Amino acid sequence: MAKKGEAETTEEKQAGFSAVKFLQGTKEELDKVVWPSRQQLISESAAVILMVILSALLIYLVDNFFGWGSAKVFG
User: Fold this and answer.
1) CB under 8 Å, gap of 24 or more: what pairs does 14-22 form?
2) What pTM was estimated for this model as a whole?
3) Sequential pLDDT tens for the chain (75 residues)
4) Does residue 11 form part of some domain?
5) Does residue 1 lie in a domain region?
6) Domain count within the chain
7) Residue 49 belongs to some domain of the structure
């Protein structure tokens, strides 16, 4: 015998897709989101951009080092 919650879920699955219910559910979930302030958004975006630049620089330097090393060994 199915529990009450399971029966409702089965009925919802059988009913098919409802765009209205989907949009209502989406709106309810977006209302729960805590959006960052403008200052927090800017500072965290700057931190991400800085870390991407530093990571790219590190990869570039390591690549050049190994390129230089392989040129000394094989060239």
Assistant:
1) none
2) 0.58
3) 556 656 555 555 566 889 999 999 999 999 999 999 999 999 999 999 999 999 999 999 999 999 999 999 998
4) no
5) no
6) 1
7) yes
